[in-house]
UniProtKB/TrEMBL annotation:
Protein name from the UniProt record: LptF/LptG family permease
A single cellular component GO annotation: ATP-binding cassette (ABC) transporter complex
Top-level taxonomy: Bacteria, Pseudomonadati, Pseudomonadota, Alphaproteobacteria, Candidatus Enterousia
Topology term for the membrane: Multi-pass membrane protein
Residue intervals passing through the bilayer: 12-30, 50-78, 99-121, 273-291, 300-319, 331-350
Organism: Candidatus Enterousia excrementavium
InterPro entries the UniProt entry points to: LptG/LptF_permease (IPR005495)
Location(s), subcellular: Cell membrane
Keyword terms, alphabetized: Cell membrane, Membrane, Transmembrane, Transmembrane helix
GO biological-process terms attached to the record: lipopolysaccharide transport
Amino acid sequence: MKILNRYFTRQLVAIFVILLLVLTGLAWMLQIMSMMKFLLNYGVELTSFLGLTVLMVPFIMSIIIPFVTFIAVIFVYNKLISDNEITVMAASGLSPRQLARPALILACVLTILHFVLNLWVVPRTQALFYSTQWNLRYGLAHMKLQESAFTQITDGLVVYVDKVSGHDLSQVMLSDMRDEDAPVTIFAEKGKLVSTARGLSIVMNNGSLQAKGDTLTTGTFDTFDMDLNVADKEGETSFRVRRVPTAELINYVLNSDTEKQHKMVLAELCSRFLGPMMNLILAALCATILLRSSLLRRRASFAPAVAVAAMAIVMSLYMSVSNMVGSLSEFVGLVAGLFAVLGVILFVLCKK
């Protein structure tokens, strides 16, 4: 039996790893394509851009692992059934439970690894992703400032610089049309790029300012600080549940009364805590359908299609219900429901 377990496990692991690498690579390439505009618009170096997209890989893997587990199980077991290997093993006295053991063991290991990925790795890499993205977008604006050229920093904000030396600028002209009712034009002999909580600012020296509102205002200054960015790193838009540590999400659910964010956080907790369970549920479901159908007098050739349909139904129900969870009692109910489904599948699998 140990030899058979190793035989099954070796094939399952090989198919799982290959599929995981292929699908993760494809999803990563799609992520790169979707962020190509970010690379072009903000003048980010290619290595920094690729490093940013790599931070999305753990999140991508956390989504596709249950599907890859299901595909690996259905591929290996259907192949063994087609080659009559399962029939020979069953005729030698092995039960469906024994034949399914390698798939279930692999699914249990993947469930544990998926928990680690969801609860710790993904929140940390997502926090680093958003922080890095913000810094590349706003913290490196000086990389876009070209000498003797007009540079659009953001919508309505254009900067002209005669010479650039690191963070030091000379002969600066800045046109700020972000507020259409109060456009501002600034000329300065010198300027310096400074990092602030909102990104980059230009501190300009020895210049003049012209502002147009209800009246036209002009004047000169010795020092003037102009914000280049419109996005606040610590603003309300920074609340993204994927990058919040799990302990903070739990504390938020227990103490927050904001209904919209409360449901958002509960949906994220469902994804983190219940998503890994789908590895075991899908693997057990697939093995049960294939192995039970292989013992029929007339082998059910439609068993793989039935397994795929069952997987689609289970996953669609899980995703629909998890997104509608609005309270802790509903969360507990969903957990109980998943354990009940797993129990029924294992009962059918182990039944003689």
